[in-house]
Structures are given as structure tokens and as C-alpha cells.
Design goal:
This protein is an alpha/beta fold and about 350 residues long. It folds into two domains: about 230 residues, Spore Coat Polysaccharide Biosynthesis Protein SpsA, Chain A; about 110 residues, Hexapeptide repeat proteins (UDP N-Acetylglucosamine Acyltransferase, domain 1, 3 Solenoid), CATH 2.160.10.10. About 20% of the residues lie in helices and about 35% in strands. The strands form seven sheets. Strands 5-4-1-6-11-8-12 form a seven-stranded mixed sheet. It has a seven-stranded parallel sheet with strand order 14-17-20-23-26-29-32. The longest helix is centred in the middle third of the chain and has 15 residues.
């Protein structure tokens, strides 16, 4: 069994952050979203993984993951470039997959319970394709499955105006190599992309065995700023532990807070769940729940809550920063007025408040 992680896409909904890096490398609880995906594959027993790169700073992905050995996996890089659809990205992995079964996992998706249980269903059920579904409030944003009265798969529709059901396709697909022959017969959709839903429809109509499982835990699609912040809060809430490795001086640390080695917390209050990255400086400040402070960032004489502050960012003299996503090496500082602000700040920006 092999894994394919899709690490492309333009990330337009997360601009300006994605002007300087791929969306899948934006950290949640101080770890890139796609790292959770790779770790899920690894923990499910899949060690050979292809990472499909897009046109948005692919070198940053290579620099971060390398050959994957530090994560206990073997990574092969496949270059897609311009986003031409999930099915197109999958087709580029034919040589990597060979004759093995494989799972396609979108690099900006997070699953509470992981994929190991579904992997067993796919292998044990003898399916040619196996998809994951999740009941959602607004299925128009997703590929949607049409089911008959007995729960059998009937059809798939991509982002329908009138959805046939509330069951959205989660960004995880299990396949036998026969899918490559199906994809060869696809034509671009109205979006100019090769749609994975069209491939699944052809398999369904062609008599191939297509099964599905329903995701019961949470599924997080981290495509927008609010999605990223919510994912950060969920991951911190479920997985944060009280680990205090940094230097704590005249400060109060409450609850499940991870303070990484080399960081300093001085004359401050940190209330969990929260994480303070290595080399970070928190001074004369309050760090509230559901906040992630990245490596080498600094928060001085400020209050930050329900936010993500990326590596090397600086926040000084801000009375209250809430629901904010602060890019790498961005600077947010007080000017003459003090107020509550909400920001989506791109990398290397400087903002005076």
C-alpha cells in the first residue's frame, strides 16, 4: 500500500499567506497541516509516500520534509505545477504507484480518527475504489455522493447547486491501480480540471466495486483563515499537554500549555490550551486559550487569544489581539490608539495599530 499526498492548489482563499508559501505548510498547533496527513499515513502502516507539488513554492515543501526519514517515511516528489484537478494529480503518480493499491490524501485535510479503520475496510472488502463521506450542512462547497434508499452509491456530483444529499466527499480516496485507466478517458470539466468525481462515476457505471465509509469524528478542511483558526483550537483542545521545557520567570502558566525548549516567558500569564514554540519570547503579556505562538516569535506587552502567530513574528504593545492569523516575520505594533483588532496578515508584513 502506498500513499499520495496532494500538496498543490493555488490557496487563493488564504491569501496573502499563500503568496509566500503553500497552504498545506501553514501550521496548526505549531505543526504544518500536511505533516498531520503524513503522520496519519505512517501510523496506518503506509511508509512509501508521493507528495504531489504545485506551483506555489514547491522548494519549501522539499526543504521542510526532505526524504521523509525524520518522520519515519520515504518521500518521493511528483511535480504537478498548475492545478488541473485531483484526477490529474493522481495520474502523475502512475510510475510511483506501480501495481500497488494506494490512498490519495489531500494535504489540507485533518481527520479526528485518522484513516487506519477505513484502510482495513478497503483491503478487506476487495474494493476497486473506496471513498470517505461526511454529512455536512452546506454540501454545495464539495463533491457530493448520491445514495439510493438503501444507502447504495448511485452517482457523484462536483460542487452542485442542488445537492442530491448532504454527504460530502472527504479528501481521502482509496484506489486499485485500475483507476489510472479510468482517468485516461476523462475530459476536463467546466472548471478546466480532471475531476476525481468523474473518475468515480465512470467506475461506478462501469461495474467496478466502489465502496464508502462515513466519517464519524470531526473532519477539518483548512482552506480559509477561519478554518485554520478553528482547526488550531480543535487540535490544541484534544492534544495539548502540559509540557514546560522553556524558561519561566515570574509568570503563571495555567492548564495544558506546551512551552518548548529555548523559549522564555517573563512576567506573563499563559492560559491553555496553548503552545509556545522554541526560541519564542513572551514578556509582560497574556497568552489566552487556543493560541499557537511559533518558533522565534515574540509577544511583548500584549494580549493574544484564539490566534496563530507564525515563526519570527513580532507583536508589541497590542492591547488585545483576537481571532488573528499572523504571518511569518510580520510585525504588529501599537501606534497611538488601542483597540480590539482582527487580522489576516501576510508574511513579512509590518502593521502599526
Amino acid at each position: 500500500m502506498k500513499g499520495v499526498v496532494l500538496h498543490g492548489g493555488a490557496g487563493t482563499r488564504l491569501r496573502p499567506l499563500t503568496f509566500s508559501g503553500p497552504k498545506q505548510l501553514i501550521p496548526v498547533a505549531n505543526k504544518p497541516v500536511s505533516q498531520y496527513v503524513i503522520e496519519d499515513l505512517r501510523d496506518s502502516g503506509i511508509k512509501d509516500i508521493a507528495v504531489v507539488l504545485g506551483e506555489t513554492f514547491p522548494e519549501l515543501v522539499r526543504d521542510y520534509y526532505g526524504d521523509g526519514s525524520w518522520l519515519g517515511v520515504r518521500i518521493t516528489y511528483v511535480y504537478q505545477g498548475r492545478p488541473l484537478g485531483i484526477a490529474h494529480a493522481v495520474s502523475l503518480c502512475r510510475d510511483f504507484v506501480g501495481n500497488d493499491d494506494f490512498v490519495v490524501y489531500l494535504g489540507d485535510n485533518l481527520l479526528q480518527e485518522g484513516i487506519s479503520g477505513f484502510l482495513k475496510e478497503f483491503v478487506g472488502g476487495g474494493y476497486d475504489a473506496y471513498i470517505l463521506l461526511k454529512e455536512v450542512d452546506d454540501p454545495r462547497r464539495f463533491g457530493v455522493a448520491e445514495l439510493d434508499s438503501s444507502g447504495g452509491l448511485v452517482d457523484f456530483v462536483e460542487k452542485p447547486e442542488v445537492p442530491p444529499s448532504n454527504y460530502a466527499l472527504v479528501g481521502v480516496y482509496f484506489f486499485k491501480p485500475v483507476v489510472f485507466d479510468i482517468i485516461k478517458g476523462l475530459k476536463p470539466s467546466w472548471r478546466g480540471e480532471l475531476e476525481i468525481t468523474d473518475a468515480l462515476r465512470l467506475m461506478l457505471k462501469g461495474g467496478y466495486r466502489v465502496g464508502y465509509g462515513v466519517v464519524r469524528g470531526w473532519w477539518l478542511d483548512t482552506g480559509k483563515k477561519d478554518d485554520i483558526l478553528y482547526a488550531n483550537s480543535v487540535i490544541l483542545d484534544e492534544r495539548a499537554k502540559r509540557v514546560l521545557k522553556g524558561e519561566i520567570i515570574n509568570s503563571r502558566v495555567e492548564g495544558r500549555v506546551m512551552i518548548e525548549e529555548g523559549s522564555k516567558v517573563i512576567n506573563s500569564v499563559v492560559r491553555g490550551p496553548a503552545v509556545i514554540g522554541s526560541g519564542a519570547l513572551i514578556k509582560d503579556s497574556f497568552i489566552g486559550p487556543y493560541t499557537s505562538i511559533g518558533k522565534d516569535a515574540e509577544v511583548i506587552n500584549s494580549s493574544v487569544e484564539y490566534s496563530i502567530v507564525l515563526e519570527g513574528a513580532s507583536i508589541k504593545g497590542v492591547e488585545r489581539l483576537d481571532e488573528s492569523l499572523i504571518g511569518r516575520r510580520a510585525k504588529v505594533m501599537r501606534n497611538s490608539e488601542r483597540r480590539v483588532v482582527r487580522l489576516n496578515v501576510g508574511d513579512y508584513s509590518t502593521i502599526e495599530i
